[in-house]
Design a protein that fits this description.
With 197 residues, the protein is mostly helical. Helices cover 77% and strands 0% of the residues.
Length: 197
């Protein structure tokens, strides 16, 4: 500091340049709170959709990834074991929640499989509890249902592409049809309930 003062006294630095360069500048920054809020809300909604989709079909999606790899690498009798894993997860998704069942875990990343109807009912209750607007509920519920349908479609494609045993294929198709019909029926009944509220 004494070096700066001696430079001003000696005339090497003008007092004007010292004041101009030595004082802090205040930079005016405009913040658009509405855009920030919308971005945060969008991010949170996307996280909710991802998490709820994972609860409903996360195990199926994980299993489908693993099975796709296994189908590429394995042949013969091993295919039956792979299809049995898929059948176990699909059937667990079909069972009501009050029935005791063992969920075959195919990897350490898997969680307990949630029956699809129970999961959709619970999700709908939570959305209704926190959101008072039917349109907002549908904005969150519809993408989750789309993710469920996409996972079931992927399962169907995997079964169709990789099964030659018609009995196994028909059994898996039957379970898939039941799951898909539950999803569609739930969506239909849920929409009617929401409109009447």
């Amino acid at each position: 500091m004494s070096g700066i003062i001696s430079s001003v006294v000696a005339g090497k630095i003008s007092l004007e340049s010292l004041l101009r360069d030595g004082t802090p500048n205040i930079i005016k920054k405009e913040i658009n709170a509405k855009k920030m809020l919308e971005a945060e809300l969008k991010s949170t909604c996307e996280q909710l959709i991802t998490q709820e989709s994972d609860v409903l079909v996360g195990n199926l999606a994980l299993l489908l990834q693993e099975l796709s790899k296994e189908f590429k690498e394995k042949t013969g009798g091993e295919t039956k074991a792979i299809l049995d894993k898929l059948s176990g997860v699909l059937k667990a998704m079909l069972l009501p929640g009050d029935k005791k069942r063992k969920t075959a875990r195919t990897s350490s990343r898997q969680k307990k499989t949630v029956p699809i109807k129970d999961g959709l009912t619970e999700l709908s209750k939570r959305l209704r509890q926190y959101l008072s607007n039917v349109k907002l509920e549908n904005m969150l519920f519809d993408p989750i249902l789309a993710n469920v349908k996409r996972a079931l479609k992927s399962a169907r494609e995997l079964i169709t592409k990789n099964t030659s045993n018609t009995q196994t294929s028909e059994e898996l198709e039957s379970v898939l049809l039941q799951l898909e019909s539950e999803v569609l029926l739930y969506k239909d009944s849920s929409s009617r309930k929401r409109r009447s509220l």
